[in-house]
Every structure is written in C-alpha cells, then in structure tokens.
Amino acid sequence: GREARGEDRPTGEGPARVAELIELGMKPGPEFKPIIDAAFEAQLDGAFADEATAIVWLRYHLSPPAPNVT
Fold first, then answer.
1. Which of 3, 26, 5, 1 is nearest to 16 (CA)?
2. I want to staple 26 with a disulfide (CB 3.0 to 4.6 A). Which of 21, 35, 45, 60 is the partner?
3. Greatest CA span in the chain, whole angstroms?
4. Mean pLDDT across the stretch 14-28?
C-alpha cells in the first residue's frame, strides 16, 4: 500500500478528487475516503495516469455489478 511506499497525500488531491465523485452522482460522506484511497492505489499501480482515465476508472468501479446471467 501507499503507507509501505512512504507516500501520502491529502484527500481531495490527485486524480480522484471529491469534486469528481460529486460529478459522478455521489453524495458527500464518509464513503469518499475509501474510494479516493483505492483510486490513489490504482494510480500508483499504473491503472491510469491522468484525470480523464481516472474518471473512467471511477465510473467503472462505482457502477453496480452486472447481473450474472447464465
């Protein structure tokens, strides 16, 4: 994790900011922090490198899972 790498940043900075979560339809609340932390980890792992692809990542991870159709 980022703690092991010695990295930290305040919530609201980086590719996944509170403003983007609100724009995606989320209401402000305590659930923002885990989402922002997960996005930060994903960025460190190379999942995305800029704000545009961060938004795509957020949309994918915030969407409900697809129904399992067999």
1. 26
2. 21
3. 45
4. 76
Which tokens hold the place of 53? Answer: 């692809």
> Among all chains, which residue has been given the structure tokens 């922090």?
33
pLDDT band of residue 45 (cuts 50, 70, 90) is: very high
Rounded CA separation 32/37 (Å): 9
Separation in Å, CA 28 to CA 4, 22, 23, 40 = 28, 7, 11, 18
- Say which DSSP state 61 is in: H
Token pair listed for 3: 């703690």
Amino acid at site 4: A
As given in the structure block, the two tokens for residue 10 are 């305040």
48 contacts 20 by C-beta, under 8 angstroms: no
**Winning range, highest mean pLDDT, from 4-13, 22-31, 41-50, 60-69:** 41-50
